[in-house]
Amino acid sequence: MANCAHPKGVEKMLVFHGAMILVIDGAKLSLFRNRGRDFAIDLELVEHSVQHAAQTADIGTDKPGRSFSSVGHGRSAHETTDFHQADEDDFARAAIDRLNALALQSDFDFIIVAAPHVLGFIRPRYSADLKKRLVAEIDKDYAGRPAADVAELLLNYTA
């Protein structure tokens, strides 16, 4: 991660010109590009997407299945599929696939700001190219917030 003594003497993160910042949770995504320099962050919205996922109760109506033990009289229930979580996982997977493709065809620095559970889901899916260019991961849920809030988070972030 690029850290530097901030003009006020505190270690702060540098966000280089052209850096791409992905802000994501399970249903909202914003991709920004920094048009500014170092500590003068100026975020331009490149892409914004919102997924309107239905709740599991609205999608799945079946009760969990049951199975019988092959030996004895035991029975057990199968866990109900969480369709809402599956939709959020698909959304996050598509977003990281897009970022992996960007990392392959560009030389941008990347910063990922994600809700902690989303960050845990997408981290194993980073390509080698993305890992090389990833300067920071911030485990905060800032999805849906305006660019000014994201810029403030980046300016005040310390590793």
UniProtKB/TrEMBL annotation:
<dbReference type="Pfam" id="PF18856">
    <property type="entry name" value="baeRF_family12"/>
</dbReference>
<keyword id="KW-0614">Plasmid</keyword>
<protein>
    <submittedName>
        <fullName>Host attachment protein</fullName>
    </submittedName>
</protein>
<feature type="region of interest" description="Disordered">
    <location>
        <begin position="59"/>
        <end position="83"/>
    </location>
</feature>
<dbReference type="InterPro" id="IPR041374">
    <property type="entry name" value="BaeRF_family12"/>
</dbReference>
